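Bit of a strange request maybe. I'm writing a small parser for structure token strings and I need a real example to test against, not something I typed by hand. Could someone generate the tokens for this chain?
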Amino acid sequence: MGAIKLDKFGGMLPAWNNVLLPDGQASYSLNGYLFSGALIGWRQPKLLYQLKRSTSRYAFRIPNRVTNATAITASDSFWYEFDDPDTNVIRTPVVEDQYQRYYFASPSQPPQYATYDMIMASQTPWLLGVPGSGCAPGVMITGGGQATQLGFSTITNGGALTFIPANSIFLIPIVPNGTLLIQDVAFISDYTDPNVKFQAVVYTDLNGVPYELLGVGNVVTGTTAGVQATGTFTNAVSVQPNATYWVGIAIDSANWTFVANIDSTSGALTSNTFSNGPPAVLGGSFGTNLAQAGNFQMWADMIGQSVFEARGYVYTWVTAYGEEGPPSPPTLVNGWSNGIWTISLFTPDPLDMGVRRNIVSTRIYRTVTSSTGTGSYFLVAEIPVTQATYQDTTDDATVANNAQMLSLYWYEPPADLKGFASFINGMTVSFKSNEIWFSEPYRPHAWPPGYVLTTEFPIIGIGVAGQAIVVCTAGTPYVLNGANPASMSMSKINLTEPCLHRGSIVSTDTTVLYASQNGLIQVSQSGAGSNITEGWITRERWQGLTPVAQPGRIRAIKHATSYFAFGSVVGTDNSVAQQGFTVELSTEDQTSFTIWPQAGGHRLGFSQLSSPNGFDIDNVELDAWTGVGLLIQNNAIYYYDFTDQAPVIVPYRWRSKTYQPLTKKNFAAFRVWFDVPASTPPQVNRDLDDPQPTLGSNQYGIIRVYADGNLWTTRELRTSGELLRIYSGDKFDTWSFEIEGRVSVSNMQVATTVKELGLI
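Reply from user aminoacidic:
Good idea to test on real output. This should exercise your parser:
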């Protein structure tokens, strides 16, 4: 080995011995952005937004719905801030949601939601879910039945004879208490006349007087004093409850007398030519003797349009957004279907009517039995939640055309759900303890307990990959598949790799990744699980190079085809809050630049990160609208701007493998070829022979040459391709080279002589 060329710079393979590393791999890499093969640092994230609260540890961006500007730099976006770094926010899965709701959950708060307008107005969010009432409705039945009489079959308080002139109509008012059929009108006359003709009539009411004709009975001839006379209807007349109707008789003969109450004058009398038939509209025109008319001894015989049936009544509460809760306990009663069924209701907790929830209405349901004998609940009415009673007089045929009750199991979510994730077909999935919960599709306020699945070990967090849910536990992971929460299947993966940190869970289109104590674990949507780093990071090196030993510290995202992670502040402990790392995720990286000699082609491998800007890390996020990587630090949001063609570069440090020639060597000279990014600060003039121990703010880079593990020579990069000397005077068994800089290095050439250097 007479000369060395360093190019196609790669990351660390910590499981490998430094002498045995493939060419181009690093024995140490800090802040290296090595995707192009050149050696350069990550770009410095830019300040995007100053958080409003000093306690905020998570923020979700909401674009302005008027301008619909979704760019990460849109100045009219709203940042919704949360104190808990493990908060999850999902946008509404509700079909055509005019309110544009956002739902959020965290380990420290019960599930909540808010509309776009509420968020813009900085209003307190609502608790998610609608409670069910624990009180069954009261039900009281009045009226109805198969046969009834309305009118005056007897005379009370004494009576008086009332004269009825020829060709007249006399009427009394009635008010049915159910849906009924008038079969006939009967009366008692005080006059015998074998030739008198009469017929029954029914009129509607308008402001207390007879109005429109509803029915006319058959013509009947003859009456006997003191004996009931009846005028029947060929087709019974249907009347509705709680409405006034006028029933009576039209006659043609004179000199009639009737017995009437002497203390009431509510009866009506008008002249009418019998042969012409009853007028279609009376219009309130009566005879002058109306004031003296009493309530005639006359009545209507009626039957109910009903059966004696059993009904069950329940009620639900509904929010201003149409979110419905589960039903109350049922009340089962028997009664005539044509009666008046008065339902007594209960109201929610006052705090649920505009403070912590916004319940505004009550939906009443009752059972309707099908021809097969199956009973189902159908909507009867929706009324204001403050209304205490409702009178149900609707027949089964009408109610059966209404919507059926869907919310039988739509319970509010448990208060200790720890997070949300959106899943296919409008499902929302969450977890607590060792339980996996699912919402009703497209209804994130409803969480039926019947959908719950359980795991053997406590759940740390969940991820979604394609059409699968990966459940990361304190033991083995699980995979759930299915298109409906009622039919989800769950498989336990035989891979004992506990998830150490909820924040380490990263979802991609095909896999879910998380950090265990042994490496980075990948679980595919098909259920295949593996430790993807175990071939090139040993367990002990993984523990030493990452913050996994600090519980709950790792915050990670998928960023620039890598697993991008930082330690974070927990409480007052910031011991790992400026330590980060990247792990290569691409399995096709070996095809990027010819063929790589290393097993598996892990050129990018592993690299360490230091906190950009020098601030502790509170959280690492992906913007939901753009996929841009975000850092929360220094009470602000910083973002990685890959559209900037002249970014500020974070200084990097990269050390080569340890080269071991066949014999001791004295490398004498080297050249480094590099490009200077446009944003790089200008250099400060220095003495070329003055070694630089550390990289200054106005330096391109520093080269450190190590011989037999000790620092032998330090040189400063000033000009690309410049010949730089290595101290002479001794030979060594091993050599390695470290580059610290902010310029983009394409290659470094090292030789034992200047002449040999020219032949590389």
